[in-house]
Amino acid sequence: MWAALRSRCLHLSATSLPSSSLTDRSWKLGFSGLNRTFSSSSAESSGKELLSLQEVEKVLSDVRADDVTVIPVGNQCDWADFMVIATGRSTWHIKNIAQALIYKVKQKQKGAKRLVLPSVQGQETGKWIVVDSGRVIVHALDEKARAYYNLENLWTPRTVLKEPVEASDDQR
User: Fold this and answer.
1) pLDDT tens digits, 34-52
2) In this predicted model, what pLDDT tens digit does every residue of 92-108 receive, in sequence order?
3) CA distance readout (Å), 1 to 6, 128, 168
4) Cys-Cys link to 55, which of 51, 74, 85, 99 (CB 3.0-4.6 A)?
5) E-only strand ranges, the chain
6) Residue 95: which domain range?
7) Is residue 161 in some structural domain?
8) Which has the closest alpha carbon to 75: 156, 153, 159, 160?
9) DSSP code, position 108
10) Nearest-CA neighbor of 89 among 67, 104, 70, 62?
């Protein structure tokens, strides 16, 4: 995951930030100080996203990804609006999910002079592949990795239910 965040920084061109903005900015612990300065591509700076949530859902449906979960994370982080988690049946299937998303990005930019591709991490092993398409981050995992890392619980806000405590007869 950190590799995906680091790769966002590599796409930042030297001209997109004035030199004084790095020194004047009050840096805080965490990523709140970045305020969407670093993105997965230059497509975001031009006002276009690589893939919308509907396009990602269509691609995942077409490649028959299992157990697709969409988690809105816009209020938890500045670098994404949605986290999509999908399960693949095999290493080949997981790699095919990532390739289908990349192909969709290429088709969307057909005829462009310069293609902007999503950042992809984990294609070597195929157990967990992260495709960063701007505002939508797609995690394609096998069943064991999905159960082990349990990303749904990590990114889903916890609600604490407080039950009223009744005084028992012994305490009165």
Assistant:
1) 443 344 444 444 445 788 8
2) 999 999 999 999 999 98
3) 9, 10, 49
4) 51
5) 66-72, 82-87, 119-121, 128-132, 136-141
6) 2-154
7) no
8) 156
9) H
10) 67
